Amino acid sequence: MIDPLMTSANQSENNPKNKIKKIIRPLEDLMLEMSLKDDDRVTALKAFDEIIDRFEGYLGMAGRKALFRNNTYDPTDLKTLVNNTFLHLYHNAENLLHIETLDTEHKKESLIKSWLGTVAGREAAKINGVLDDYYKKIQLKDFADRYKEPGANDDIEDEPVPEKIKIETYNDEGECQSVEINLDINNDEGESLTSEEMIVFTEVLNECTDREKEIILTYYDYLDGRKHLPPEESKRLCDTFGILPDNLNHIKNRTFKKIKQKSLERMRIKNPDYRLRE
Amino acid sequence: MIPHDLTEDEEEKISRKLEFYLRSTGHLFPVTPAQVDAFEEYMASHPDFTPLPEFKLSAEEILERGYIEYVPKAKPLTAEDEYGEGFKAAARNKGDLTEDILKKMKEDQEKGKKKK
After folding, report:
1. Which pLDDT score is estimated for B81?
2. What pTM did the predictor assign?
3. CA within 13 Å, CB half, A45
4. Any idea what the CATH number is for the domain that residue A239 is in?
5. Does the pLDDT value for residue A152 go beyond 50?
6. pLDDT band at B4; cut points 50, 70, 90
7. Least CB-CB distance to A52: which of B18, B57, B70?
8. Facing residues of A182 across strands?
9. Distance from CA of A179 to the nearest CA of B (A)
10. Which of A92, A94, A107 is nearest to A156 (CA)?
11. How far is A27 from chain B (nearest CA, A)?
């Protein structure tokens, strides 16, 4: 298979990363420089290089873990995914300028990683199903929209960072549905697990068959696990596992129910006072 | 313990926890800052020793290449995939096979002979 990333990448002399040891600069400065790419391309490219340096390890690691799950991992796909995700970042840098309202570099970094994860998840779905048409229907708003109310002015310093954002999707019937994503790093509403919960989920997931795991993970790929799958993705799962569409839905519901019930029961066995926290 | 049906509230909370688990352990991409932090913590205690492919990415190269289309995964070929609609039409109509199909069949026969 042709590796599109290795053709020119090996020309190390041309790779600016091999020439300059970069100083770590604030992320908002890098985003600003990239967003001014039309005015100063050279500076924008330097900033982009620094961003790549800082995030390619993370993106590669998260990408490999996510792609590994269905035994179809291919390093070429991973490289393509990383390439395309960074390309999206470069072209959407202006949408990330609001990171400057966060008070630590760590929070800014986590926010950019979560943005990269959101985009990479969409890219990963294309590897399996080439779902361009589906994604045309998903209005996964850019981060600017996540922060800005329609018509908000550009004075970003005065704008508070919301704790949650809404992502709107459309189901098969064309009905608009929205999903909330928690952006506040300090707010752990439903966004943390105890070590006991981690162990129980690991045990329960390990008891699922590969088919069950792939089906529920694919449902989660489409935002919150309860939305309709796009037809191409349903067909892929049916073809892969030799099942009918009706059975797919049945297996999904049964698996979700089994995982949730078993998990809750085991947590209560380990700790009779166990309560699902808010 | 007797399994019980989950209440709507329990169902929703455990759904969120399950998703958080899947994203913080890398089964799915982490998409919130809290998931990112949990994922990094998880990876620190579960190091992955398989080396990552060497990316050697640079800004200029990414922009030069632009968006790369994904290569569709190969699936096992069936006779229909291999010989296409022409083969089925010939069988239905008892007609002649096209030159392409005849050439392909001949190549397959030769391959078969070589194997023997």
Report:
1. 45
2. 0.70
3. 14
4. 1.10.10.10
5. no
6. low
7. B57
8. A164
9. 12
10. A94
11. 15
